[in-house]
Amino acid sequence: MGIFMKRWFWFVLSISFVLGACSADDKTSANPDGKIKIVTTIAQIAEPLSVIGGEHVEVESLMGPSVDPHLYNATHGDITKITNADVVFYNGLNLEANMVDIFDEISASKPVLAIGEVLPENQLLEDETGAVDPHVWFDLDLWKQGLEAAVEELKEYAPDFADDFEASKQAYFAEMDEVKDEAMKLSEIPSNKRYLVTAHDAFGYFGRMHNLEVVGLQGLSTDDEIGVSDIQETIQIIKEYNVPAVFIESSINDSSITAVIEGAKGEGVIVALGGELFSDAMGEAGTVEGTYLGMYRHNVETIFEALMGDGN
Fold this sequence. Notes:
alpha/beta; Rossmann fold; 2 domains; globular
């Protein structure tokens, strides 16, 4: 049996197990304590929903710190977790490309929502090939809409808790508004320094919201190849606009950014390493950066301090 057929056999076997274990008509929580068991792919969904859901939910993210969702493949343990969940949320928009078939299958037996795919199409960004940018959590207003859809799904699943969910959602959205106000400091960055250079094109929505020109070495997915020409083009942008700093990402190898820094140095241009940003993954649980709002604040502060510096 070839590698492809073995993988396909395992996928079909796993999904059969999932569907056999679930009942579309059973809304009794899988948790013995009666909490709604929520499974998400990324922490940018899980952590806000754990705050909004409060004592009524137990939320688990399949992908932890430093995990790249673009390349992630579901494990047997993931299949079990999804099987035992009451409700499943994922980002969609091809972020978790290797898991789409699993979610399509499981949606026949339990609530499954791709929160990025309920957003208005005219508010989504596309690259030059027409591929939709999945990193919607970097637009605070868009992410509100996605979380709103998730909360509505929870209300429908557990109407007895609907009032609690709504009150917590409104409180959380107020905190999101505070972060948005804090991020207005980015407008103080001089126009000639408003270039955000990162390892891959994850910050398009962030750039649109805060009026920054975003340059990613890779495309929207980390599965895209990085060529010598990509590195050289980025170096030319740094030289032309005197970009003071570039940034690595917590979930991506820093070799491409290192190559840019060294390449620029070889051409007589000193560009600083501005720090580490959280893009496709958040920080460790229990840290400030392990929360959605804390991660966002960290990125704002890191970018502000680096781009406001003298650079050269």
